[in-house]
Structure formats: C-alpha cells, structure tokens
Amino acid sequence: MMSKKLTAGAALVLTVFALSSCGNTIRGVGQDAANTVNATQDAAGRVEGAAAR
Q1: How far apart are CA 20 and CA 6, in angstroms?
Q2: Which residues form the signal peptide (predicted)?
Q3: How far apart are CA 5 and CA 32, in angstroms?
C-alpha cells in the first residue's frame, strides 16, 4: 500500500517537472520568434534606407 502511494507521488512530481520544462521551452520559442521578426524588420529598414540613397 505504501509503495503504491510513493510511486504515485513520484509520478506526480515528475509530471509537474516535465510540464514546467515545457512551459519554459514554449516561452523561449515565443521569444525567439519575436526576435526573428524584429531582426527581419530591422534588415528591411536598412535595405529600404540603402535603396533610397
């Protein structure tokens, strides 16, 4: 009886850690995507400025 509770508790803890890791990864991917958009817009602005000269 005690080992089943211990196993269930360990599984719960591992699940919580796994889900928190996924949350951090998703947040990081969102930041990377935003940085990519910003870099693309900056590059487009530089090209537009060079073409206007």
Answers
A1: 21
A2: 1-20
A3: 41
Query: Helix, strand or coil for residue 53?
Result: coil
CB atoms within 10 A of CB 16: 10
Rounded to an integer, what distance in angstroms lies between the CA atom of residue 20 and that of residue 46?
39
User: Longest C-alpha distance within the chain, in Å?
Assistant: 79
pLDDT for position 42: 95
Amino acid 43 reads A
Q: Taking the complete model, does pTM exceed 0.85, yes or no?
A: no
